[in-house]
């Protein structure tokens, strides 16, 4: 995504100069931005009310003044469309912009991300605002790209949404009979005779707090519908903006594993993926890495934008620890290491009032550059400038893919039984971590992805198998691929209807097993995975919990059996040869040692090797571009670590030549280019 | 309750063939039902919307086809009236059928058990549906009995209920002055001058979540009113059905210790009690036993129906463990052992969609009979057929009764102070367990029951003493009975107004004590019950907690005193001679060892003996009929146990002769008929 | 506050004879009151509905009869205005009296404290009721004082409140531009163009449960507005009553550290402060002491009234333990010891129904005087009579003040970040305890208070520094005062807008430090305060947690540094010389040992000495009047303790002469007058 205007790593972030009506402060801002190597500012994220005082009036003079001022100092603008919070006057005059919440209550003006996605008023004025901005700024030389709205999310349950839902259902099902069948409405007397009888599923009808539903079909479709509705809002602005600036990229900032939107669908609609990364002090660094990889996967590995991260502190967690010295820098490089081409902050200057006043910023309330945070920002800025355009567009190559599916997660969360403790993201992360500790690159792919080109595909808890997916997996394995999945897979189709004939349904012949029953116990109760014999790194036994598939082999090799309970001795891990490849099934939630051992064994068998073996806590990734390789070595530990390089490298951050044994500082980073 | 059509133990359960429009599946169903010895299917539980597409049309052709098909294969139908979930079209056209919830929000269509019991529309169409079914099926030879609605429960707070409540109050209190007096409305300025001023007690007026109320009189009466309102719905259908089939039994399925309905009142209105038993993996088996006994008590010991149990797994618990091998059989016999004449399942074939798709069934998603669950079902079916009509109508004889009162529980839950941790069911269970471990049969009786014929009556936490109850208890004791009650008894009358003059109020002379105060501590804090001297099995000291009555003896013998705190040395357990009998008062919540010792001691004194002494975990009950005795011996342990029979028996399940030392398999069952 | 009618310690409490229509009971009441030495009864707290059956009718005959009867027996009446719970007829006819709750739901009739403070109906009829009572009873000889409403509290969110809020805002901000600026509304697109666009902040707009807000400015002002609205209701009645009885004192009963009302503002409007003290079994006695001192501070040290305490038990806690023998007496003297001139109970006779029937009373349900509770009441009554008017009006003298500010607490609670665990009251209590254990008297003062006359002022977590406050503190220190504050101080102004330029903002030069950042960790994680050298009682190291200010000294002496983490070695406790005084800053939440050591050290340096050194658990306070000193010695322990008196005293409770070593009984009390 080399951008001709600014062909280097973009560095900067959200900037809200309208919160200060002081030219002196604006001047200071510019001065510090330049000191810090900042070259991009995101403007106008929340200024709808400010720039549009009524239905007819648009006043961009203030915004233009700031864009000019920035551009005059070499700083480009990522221009937001400001539609993530409607004006108070609009809420007052046109209450249809206000959401009705999960409890069925119409909200009043307040907060942000507050507009009903199916409000005619909202869509009308959001489109108009995009057009007004496009028209006004299309030729501004400082305009670098568009940032539509902000962190789309949340559902609405108003009458406009109900009408929209019925329309969406008609388009999806065509006839009410088909809907009745695919929602299985003869259960609990839910037979519908007209579309008008269908109401939105919330706390007043089918659902309870925490993704509890008594009618999964309805609830699943409502999530699809709301995700689509919000996406339509994005697309509406996207389309308008394209008419003015066909060559500028357009994005909106996503939120990683945020559950409510089907980001694979969103990724297709965006020119470039961008996202906001807010790990807490106790977030595993592997989970941050995984989320970067997931975001990269939304557009098939295309580099993405780190749109927001805090330079220091958040405000909305329970305990908002400071990022320790060096950690902001480390995590900035971690983003680049996983495919980001930008390092952007929320926020450049800290607000003085309202709920984000205790969120960190490049320029803190002290108002000057003599702060730890500023110094660290400055260092990163300096380093990124040195890198010029070297990394821009560089890709990550992986022989391993993990399947991730938002709809699968929704269906798992919504289903009643067998356990309330199944956490899809946690199960996925458990497998991801096994690759992460080996420094083996992983792609995240959707259930629609082409599997060709991968050696190993892992699909944890593939509960929902959509039409055609099983066949694609079978072809992949037949052609020599290795496929790994887990307990509670192959259960339902995309309508959350069970595939009859025996679990894991459409995956049954692939795995060569039949799962007769699935036991569920309090996660504090454990069984054991007892290896039938040593297999690579796996031997002896491991703990497992959560769910316990009772498996019959129908041809699969039994790699391990349960250690206790009435199914002691029955299979828990199996491997089935299928065509030229094999399919491994893990019938319970193993402990990390098991999953690590399993993945290492499979990788060894497939010849999938580490980029560089490292001590625990040291992460390695590689980006390549035009035959050049960039190796990121990230020390997540608070101690120095030593490691041994295999080749000879140039550390791009210091221009040192490195080879053999090298030492990383606490939270230190190497960015190594192989010496040719 | 020998039924001439099917004079044997009914075996089968809920069957929803309308969920599959596949004749092939229906044929498979019949084949497997016959293999499993199934002779009864409950049809039409949730098909209102399917069978009545609009106000005027009733189409029972599908239902009749299934009844015919079943009957042709010797399977009878327990026919449900389908009124537990109104159709969506009805909710749309007649919103008065929708409940207003505790938060004051009118619900929309969704879920089940969703109709306002005071909705004119609901009552009109529910009655019409019962009539239509009665008229259509009254002469069907396969029609075995009626199953009205399903698991009645939940309260409504709509305007129709408010109007109904006022009417109910007028009928109960006649004058507003009397209501003011009995609700004590001069407290907190609640004086009412007209019935219209009274509003329903919910989160918008007098109550909070979790049975919190600031005005107990109103809240208590609202529970009575709602229980009565739902009962009127039952009775409405019952009456209609009787006009068509005066000789068929009518029931609705209850839910054990479910708190919201006064089941003793319901029991009177039903021809036979039926209930749904869903213990979790960690439910004490003694609690299941107790609940069976409670349900049997609703109709004075008449045999009841086990209407639902799962063959394997539930879906709505947090962790839905499989029933371990043998446990479904064991618990089926446990139901029979406590007076059930049926063994019925929810469900015969598992749904493929919506919220019960992960609830176990006789025919699982695999769709065939090669499953553990099916094999166990088959075994039980075979055994029950062998039993023919031997057990049908057999009764349980008990010299012990435990008093249970739903209104007492409501009043305890609603009252503010002295502790939030008092759990009526838990206190009752603690006393029940003491009999259970001795294999001493227990009847559950209401506060209206005749006590004649019992030797020992236990009434844990008899907080509310209704008019006349104290006198009946006194007569019972005067005539030689032994009465046991506990702390916080005798406090209020049926209006939750305190009986003045000293606790335990109307029971004070019976117990020969005065309770001056009641201390309440965090249940993690303990005092001790220190025995004054050895008494039977009781000596030394025991832990107690929760509440601590500060007792003065007014003639009672002090059996034990407190061990610590400022009331150390003051009475905690007393016994008063009253006429020919005695009354024992336990002033705190003793640990199980204490309660076990107390009950064993009292039983020994009264010559109430065990049916058969057994090791822990082995339960024994006896049913008798026409001079014949049937002894159930149930091994709830996962190990073999040995025990010694006193007489010589025939095991009806194996036709073996047994005497002396016998061995029970893990989860094994003996059904012993004495050899005469 | 010597009252000519009854110049002694008032003893009695809430009395609701209207709950019994039995002259015999009323006669018993009087008899027992006299036995117990009761001389004041609070009547009419909740009888609005009883005394006013409709818009026009007022019937005080019943009330007058009770006042007469009491007065005839020498008992005076504290007459309540009964406006804390509107009549049901009013709620039905004029729904505007009903509050709209935080969820936006209009409530229905129920509970108490249920009127919207901005309801025209409520204000009209509350004023009329005050007038009717004033007119009727102004000349009654038994009328001792007025008790307006009861425990004002709770907020309303109705349309009348919304309109009132806008009016209040106009008066506060004059222009919408100024409001926009001071609410920082350019954040998140909140720019308002008209007052009508502003909606109340609740769960439908800006807030969530638990003082969560996304817009602090709005939420903070709404708390001010609601506190003011309720205060206007008080003032309305106050003004009316004054027209009838200009010489009688008027009060309303407050609730200690209750968060929703700005009691310093309320205190000014009341003739005398009264409050209801309900410690639980596990409430630290120092917290009760602190709350008494806080209530005394509301009117600059003027004696206050203990309006309610329970003689034995409460009903609304989770576990309502009895007050142990002697504890009611002990806590009664504790109230006097801290400046109360009355000892009043809720309640004199226990209700028989509704939610306070399990709340203790002087006359219990037993209905006679042969109870522990009555005997203890009697003893206290006898003792108080002996004291005659000796204590009345006696004051407490203190050289130490602690700053307490309701608005500061609101702002802390509302702010998002840096930690959810900051508890203002807990932090204040931690400092208070350090004085308490030394028996050093403390005044509580508002942020507006004159600091002259104090040697030491402590302001824990002075997050919000209002206009002029910093200057007043600086003058205080310049003139020789010692000022102590803590972490997270000096952050915002009264609009919750951050003071730019570096924390602690306006206090920065006073403290001679700059706080660059504040780290927040889970409170289970600890750092250490490492003393730079021994300082008085402080040496070695202490634990600290919660928040960690990263401090740069700008001239202050570094007394202690952090022991670990990346800020190990940087300052955590500093002292700055400023003029003739010094300012101490504590940058984290130290453990109690640290705070105790700090306060003892500072007191030693300032020559602030203990009234009397005592063992732990023995509290000493002093009240003085006309040159006479009354020393209260309170043994909060359950064991006897010995202590040594310095002077010779007369124990007013026993008329014994005491000197040298004396022994206090468990929960014993000495009230010592120095022998001159």
UniProtKB/TrEMBL annotation, chains A, B, C:
Keyword line: Glycosidase, Hydrolase
Catalytic activity, reaction form: Hydrolysis of terminal non-reducing beta-D-galactose residues in beta-D-galactosides
Protein name: Beta-galactosidase
Superkingdom, taxonomy of origin: Bacteria
UniProt entry tagged with the keyword Hydrolase: yes
GO molecular function terms listed in the Swiss-Prot or TrEMBL record: beta-galactosidase activity
Similarity-based family: Belongs to the glycosyl hydrolase 42 family.
Sequence ranges assigned to domain Beta-galactosidase trimerisation in this UniProt record: 399-608
Glycoside hydrolase family 42 N-terminal domain: residues covered: 14-387
Keyword Hydrolase applies: yes
E.C. numbers: 3.2.1.23
Alphabetical list of Gene3D superfamilies matching this protein: 3.40.50.880, Glycosidases (3.20.20.80), Golgi alpha-mannosidase II (2.60.40.1180)
Span of domain Beta-galactosidase C-terminal: 617-673
